[in-house]
From TrEMBL:
Coiled coil: none annotated. Pfam families: DnaJ (PF00226), DnaJ_C (PF01556). SMART domains: DnaJ. The keyword Nucleotide-binding does not apply. The keyword Chaperone applies. GO terms for biological process: protein refolding. This is DnaJ domain-containing protein.
Amino acid sequence: MATNQNYYDILGVKRDASDDDIKRAFRKLAAKYHPDAGGDEQKFKEVSEAYTTLSDPKKRREYDQMLMFGGIPGADFGGSGGRGRYSYTTNVGGDWSDIFNNMRGGDGGFGGFDFSSIFGGAAGARAANRPTKGSDLTMSVDVSAEEAFRGATRKATYRVPSTGEEQTLTIKIPAGAVDGGKLRYRGRGEYGTNGGDRGDLVITTHVAEHPVFKRDGADVRMELPLSIYEATLGATVDVPTPDGTEVRLKVPAGTQDGKTFRFRDLGAPNVKRKGSRGALFVTVRVKVPTMLSKKERDALAALRDADTRDYREEVMRYGARR
């Protein structure tokens, strides 16, 4: 700025200008010189610095006192100084790039001044007219356990909030779908504005519980009941699998309750790794009969009396130490 200009000159107001006069002058000049509106950034800095000082009562009072002594605070905006010049620095809380960013974000930057009121027809208008993608829409679909294992399709109808129109699509539920899984259909959500893309439709799958199989991702777990005779003597049992086939399990003699057998690639399809499947885990549950015939009771009693094994040896040893 010229060396004989002060902040009042820059804003084009008198020294006794009211706060409203200063604010109106700044609004007019800021709209003219703001960089986002294609104006002169250096002039905008000068106008902004002048407003920062004159809009603050304390800073304005100090500034006026300096003017009374013949100085020109703000001359050269902190330039090299020299005869007849006085450097007056105003701290606005950061460098200019920070201030511009704050102003664009609506943070004010100059004593709470709202720049959005100035640039509603310039930079604000450009921002308002930018293409904006529509929001995502969500819905859920109930799936049986069998459908989740093998995959299925569903016809779904939903309503677009902004237009009220109903739209229909075919949902493809992948084999191996899990409870709470997400299916995303791009471009089937809410409409965008100003030519922006449509949002997506996000569908959550709710998979029903199976009476036998329990899912653990792609792995499947089940419990296999065995009689005490099968567990003791050993047995061969046909075990169902999630895909509807059976696998033969050879139970060794003396198998204990809780023993788990693993079958690779007989679980559910892995939706994250196409072409692969999880494992099937079969846990043995030994069932003790609650009702016995006299013949069975007598036979079991004879076996018990003839059994000389000490099944509680470890327990009793621990008790003896105490």
